[in-house]
Design brief:
single chain; about 250 residues; alpha/beta; Rossmann fold; 7 strands; globular; binds NADP nicotinamide-adenine-dinucleotide phosphate
Length: about 250
């Protein structure tokens, strides 16, 4: 994949992995567009990286994803890369949490349906360019799910499956499809308590960029690669091990 001189929409580029990615891509002479729900986080991101542009929206709401896509199409028709990075996680007990179904709906809307919707809305713009790319961000947990994240694992597993079929559907077209599976990364996602095994955003993004440069369609970063291999060799052990982590 060519990593310079693109126009890239990163959903959720106002913190964590998305923000680091925005920094790295701006340094490589790309025009970077980000979005998020919280205006203060978006303004802070712009203060850190003045070259970026932002759009405030909640992609879990279909009409707001439509407004985001319209903004991109009307204002940045050069957009040739879409990175579906924004996501949420709810750490809950499925039966004890009174709001579990409500939380499931928001989590599936954000992590699964919004990326699918944005791909459908933006593909007509992406495909007008000589080279274009769709990158979906998932997790090593697609290979061995954790009981504490009942909807996160399954929303990302479904996105993984959708990404595989999207790649086959587009195999004769100019748009390339990538998926990046991250391990635990030290970002605001962990609300100040990252697991001991978490890697830095810099390492995570640097490995993602290396994988993209090599043109690997599925980029499994560090722990995600180990979990992938262990889950193939000993699925029961992988499931037990991942669920014994703090
Ligand atoms: N951190 C990890 O350990 C880890 C591990 C594996 C995979 N990942 C994946 O990496 C990606 C980025 O995670 P991160 O750790 O960087 O998380 P993060 O720091 O919490 O960033 C999430 C970003 O998404 C935005 N966002 C969330 N919900 C949104 C919505 N409904 N509409 C628009 N924007 C929304 C957030 O902004 P607002 O809050 O302002 O909306 C923020 O900019 C996610 O796909 C996650 O699944 C993370």
């Amino acid at each position: 994949m060519k990593l310079e001189n693109n126009t890239v929409l990163i959903t959720g580029g106002s913190s964590g992995i998305g923000l680091e990615l925005a920094k790295v891509l701006v340094a490589k002479n790309n025009k970077v567009l980000i979005c998020g729900r919280n205006l203060e986080k978006l303004t802070q991101a712009k203060a850190q990286i003045p070259e970026i542009e932002f759009f405030q929206c909640d992609i879990s709401k279909p009409d707001e994803s439509e407004k985001l896509a319209k903004w991109v199409k009307d204002t940045y028709p050069a957009c040739n890369n879409l990175i579906n990075n924004a996501a949420i996680v709810n750490k809950i007990d499925f039966f004890d949490d009174k709001k579990s179904i409500e939380l499931a709906e928001i989590e599936y809307e954000t992590n699964l349906l919004a990326p699918i919707r944005l791909i459908k809305l933006l593909y007509p713009t992406l495909k007008t360019h000589n080279s274009s790319v769709i990158i979906n961000i998932t997790t090593g947990l697609i290979y061995a799910p954790r009981v504490i994240y009942p909807f996160y694992n399954s929303s990302k597993s479904a996105l993984h499956s959708f990404t595989q079929t999207l790649r086959i559907r587009l195999k004769n077209e100019k748009t390339e499809v990538f998926e990046v599976m991250f391990p635990a990364v030290d970002t605001p996602w962990h609300q100040g308590k990252p697991p001991k095994i978490a890697i830095s955003t810099q390492s995570a993004v640097s490995e993602m960029i290396k994988g993209l440069e090599k043109g690997k369609p599925e980029i499994r970063v560090r722990g995600a690669k180990i979990l992938y291999k262990v889950s193939r060799l000993a699925p029961g052990f992988a499931l037990k091990k991942i669920n014994s982590l703090e």
